[in-house]
Amino acid sequence: MGRDQKILVAGVGELLWDIFPSGRRIGGAPANFAAHCMALGSDARVLSKIGDDEDGQALLAEIKKLGLPSDTIMVDADMPTGTVNVVLDHEMHPSYVISEDVSWDYLLSTPELEVMAAKFDAICFGTLAQRNEVSRQTIQKLVASTPINGLRIFDVNLRQHYFSPEIVERSLSLANVFKLSDEELPVICQMLDVHGEMEEQLLALMKRFNLEVVALTRGRKGSILVTPEDKSISNGENIEVVDTVGAGDSFTAALCLGLLKNLPLDKINSNASRIAAYVCSQTGAIPLLPRYLHF
């Protein structure tokens, strides 16, 4: 999956404010993914929609601070900017209460977006932003508009009740890379009637949906990458966790760029694990990555 030209990637879906007890931070998996891809040297975009309100303007300001272009972020005159209340447990793992009927639920495609999508080397999408039929149709159309030889990464990101077997199956049929966590794997396997031990489940999902890569993150226990020809196991990093918000998105970003650069699978897994561990050791989903983590 090597690329000679400048890598162009996109995260499509939710863009919002994560509301912590200590204050608010820019959030949404697609934005986190794009910001980390940009930090690691790619040209990245967020495809989303914000409200025509103070929260939306503040999000645009944060997007610009991160160095991300804002030309693919639409503004909705009627619906408010999205917010999520985030609560951290004693192990710093987050739970979410996500506001409904917000601007990113009504993401619409445009001819300009579809032309741009045809140039993406990779696009990343999940389930949350597909909870509303309007955004669901748009996301699936944009993913299908990307080059067939590019990466279509389904980072499932199960949140609350905002997913269904139909959304998961359709997303997997569009994807060629599937990333999920060890907490999400049993939910997905029960939903799709997949059986066996963990690695058997990963291989069964890969075969069933003709995937090129399946990536499983396991928190402190590390991560597993499988392809039709290879397997990589990372044992994880020993770090002090500050919070885990955004760690999975940073892993996905490193996975994406490693695949596009055609790095060895073990190297991809090692890079992604180290970056995700660093994010866990910092406050917020998009900390500045030190140079030694770049690749």
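Above is the first protein from milestone M3; the second protein from the same milestone is given next.
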Amino acid sequence: MPISSRSKLIPLYAALAVFFVGAAFFAGVSVGIDSTPTVDQSASVLNKDGAVSVDFAPFWKAWNVLSEKFVPASTTAPVVDDSARVWGAIEGLAESVGDPYTVFLPPEETRMFFENVEGNFQGVGMEVGIRHDILTVIAPLKGTPAEKAGILPGDKIIQIDDTSTARLSIDEAVQRIRGEKGTSVKLKLVREDVDEPIDVTVIRDVIEVPTIETEVTSVKASDDTDESTSPLVNNVYVLRLFSFTGDSTKRFADALRDFAKSGTNKLIIDLRGNPGGFLESAVDMASWFLPSGKIIVRQEGSKSEEDKVWRSKGYDIFTDNLKLVVLVNGGSASASEILAGALSEHGAATVVGTQTFGKGSVQELVEITPDTALKVTVARWLTPNGKSISEEGITPDVVVSMSSEDIKAKKDPQLAKAIEILTKE
């Protein structure tokens, strides 16, 4: 995605590693908040055609009533100045569209946002999203406090410390869970196959986002093969991709070169627990396996904007002899879903695992004042065949579940099925 000098492509790792793929276009907007406004009660907003679209008179009447009549019920109640009332009104406006990813960031939240983008990240190391109106773990990042505490993709967070998450936005939840290294946060989780809620205390730390791990797994050609008398062994190259960060494209390319030298044609790309990141990284990675011009992802925006299409760059270095499986689960989101969906729908890979999270929207960060911003959903992702990632996620070609008992026993039936598919004659 091209980035102008006035825009930024930002994956937000924050305390919880909350990613979004999108551009932040900054445009200053002046907001007068120094005194109670004197406003024509018939004030209205015109749409782009010059026609009246909404009458603001009720808003200004309510503003003036509060200014003239409101008295705090307690003498110890905090004083709410005009700027706080403006921020509250914009928060309500953003909330009214009913999209959990469209939120207003007041000054303090905006400051924290850019600290997270530009500096070190301290928190628990997981991404969250909203699923069925409930704050849900998309994925804990590998090696982070969240993973070490046993938090799993799909866990529903119903309480943060003593606060219910029922009416918290994602950004409010992030601010409550993030914090300085060494401090703790208590989460109450609901897990699908566990009867009672689970209380987990996580000690915050500096979060380093992992990128890639690789290994070559050797598997006997059949269970009846005697390794002492037969050399028939299948080597499977496993590439585990944990995030789509700025340097992931180079590391992915390096891993593919290593795969090409390994002597095997069997490759597994493991996207389980990968919450996404940069769109451009997903496009670049898919281009290693697809001919030039093949559609990787479609972007469907507002009616006033033309839809966009991202196509393969045509690296396409592998022959038809390549055997490829992509592993996904409920923790695979955003860029992971774009990559898996493109490879599956073009027949380049078999996708194995469980339904992905379904995070297929694009957020743009717009400056409202010099110290506030609006994060607004501006588009949604569609697979090459036009399926909405947000509505449907990616359905694996071969569905294989993995239970909590499998995890405790350190069994991986999804990986086992992938190896079985690749080594089958």
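Note on the second protein: The radius of gyration is 24 Å.
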